[in-house]
């Protein structure tokens, strides 16, 4: 019976650790807000949610962060904010 209690304790500890880790990641993502069109930096950088420049968008810019496929991603130009993968700004540089 002692081993069963120990086993359950280890399972609970592992799942709690995973929950805390994933929860922290989710809270971090929620803490970031999407860049607003009237944000002074967005205006200065001519940021738009939907690119009108053929073949150029935030998803294929070297400044964007995060993983491919995410609709909203971090960007080096707008620290602490999220940009649309379909967006564009004047700082766009093709990802190598």
UniProtKB/TrEMBL annotation:
One of its GO terms (biological process) is aerobic electron transport chain. Pfam families: HIPIP. InterPro entries: High_potential_FeS_prot (IPR000170), HIPIP_sf (IPR036369), TAT_signal (IPR006311), TAT_signal_bac_arc (IPR019546). Residues 1-31 form the signal peptide. Coiled coil: none annotated. Gene3D superfamilies: High potential iron-sulphur protein. PROSITE patterns: HIPIP, TAT. Residues 29-96 form the High potential iron-sulfur proteins family profile domain. Homodimer. NCBIfam families: TAT_signal_seq. Specific class of high-redox-potential 4Fe-4S ferredoxins. Functions in anaerobic electron transport in most purple and in some other photosynthetic bacteria and in at least one genus (Paracoccus) of halophilic, denitrifying bacteria. This is High-potential iron-sulfur protein.
């Amino acid at each position: 019976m002692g081993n069963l209690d120990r086993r359950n304790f280890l399972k609970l500890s592992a799942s709690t650790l995973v929950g805390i880790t994933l929860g922290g990641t989710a809270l971090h993502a929620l803490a970031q807000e999407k860049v607003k069109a009237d944000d002074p930096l967005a205006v200065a950088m001519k940021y738009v949610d939907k690119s009108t420049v053929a073949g150029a968008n935030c998803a294929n810019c070297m400044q964007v962060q995060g993983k491919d496929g995410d609709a909203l991603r971090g960007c080096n130009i707008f620290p602490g904010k999220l940009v649309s993968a379909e967006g564009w700004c004047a700082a766009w540089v093709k990802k190598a």
